[in-house]
Design goal:
By secondary structure, the chain is mainly alpha-helical. Helix content is 52%, strand content 10%.
Length: 182
Amino acid sequence: MYSKQIKKGDDYENLQKTIVILIADFKVEGLEELEYITKWKIIEEKNRKLILTDKLELIIIELPKIIEDEARSELIDWLSFLENPKSERVKKKMKENEELNEAVNKLEEMSEDEYLERIADLREKKILDENTRLHESYNKGITEGELKNKKETAKKMLEENIDIEIIIRITGLTKEEIMQEN
């Protein structure tokens, strides 16, 4: 998402803020002492003060740390939506929560767009794969052609009674490859 915002030659200043949300259904090792939701940024390792960019964030939500109570019931509704937008809980809560209802409808619209985008991505990958195969075939052809030329040169050198060690040094062929042709 972050890198797709700009095209080749665009200025990095055009990048918009991107937030990645990781919802873990387990407790993340090393985060035991932290709250159920944490926000991360890319910071300089040594001094841990300088933030590289404010345009990229990672939010980690650890589901096991969330205790179902009234204060967090709406959060649980949204997490249920993220986990399974078609769950019974979400269907029930859609009647009570207009924003949740709107989110479910928007997700359905986006799913159709994502499907079309996925098809376009797969088509582009196919083209790149074909180009790679053509390039590899071309390079293989050159290599085979070079090998054939070296073997022809070695054959002519043998006919001129040039020492086999010299032919090996000049052509880079092995003794077996040289003798195979004769």
